[in-house]
Write a sequence for this structure.
C-alpha cells in the first residue's frame, strides 16, 4: 500500500489525509493487537480514575496505553510511533482503529 508523503512542511492537513499513513504504520497483527488492548485498557483506567476521583490513575492510564503501543512499534513494526510527530491525529487513529477492530471492519 502506497501512502503519499505528508505535504511540504511535514504536516497533514486533515485526519482523513493522516489515517492512511497511520494504517501503514500499523500493519503487523501483533502491533495492532497491542494498540487495541492498550487503548481499551487506558480508556477503562481513565474512566475509573475520573469516576473515583483518583487522579493518580490518569498517568497510569497514559502509561498503560502507550507502553503496549510502543512495544508494538519498536519490536514488531520497527518504526517510530506517530505520537511523536502527530500526537492528536495518532490518538484519534488509535481510537478509530480500535472501533474498526471491535466493529469487525478491520482485522486485528
Amino acid at each position: 500500500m502506497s501512502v503519499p508523503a505528508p505535504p511540504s512542511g511535514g504536516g497533514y492537513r486533515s485526519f482523513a489525509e493522516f489515517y492512511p499513513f497511520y494504517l501503514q504504520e500499523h500493519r503487523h497483527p501483533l502491533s495492532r493487537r497491542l494498540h487495541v488492548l492498550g487503548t481499551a485498557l487506558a480508556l477503562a483506567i481513565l474512566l475509573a480514575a475520573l469516576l473515583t476521583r483518583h487522579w493518580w490513575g490518569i498517568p497510569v492510564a497514559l502509561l498503560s496505553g502507550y507502553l503496549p503501543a510502543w512495544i508494538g512499534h519498536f519490536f514488531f513494526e520497527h518504526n517510530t510511533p506517530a505520537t511523536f510527530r502527530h500526537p492528536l491525529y495518532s490518538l484519534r487513529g488509535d481510537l478509530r482503529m480500535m472501533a474498526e477492530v471491535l466493529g469487525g471492519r478491520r482485522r486485528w
Summary: The mean pLDDT is 92.
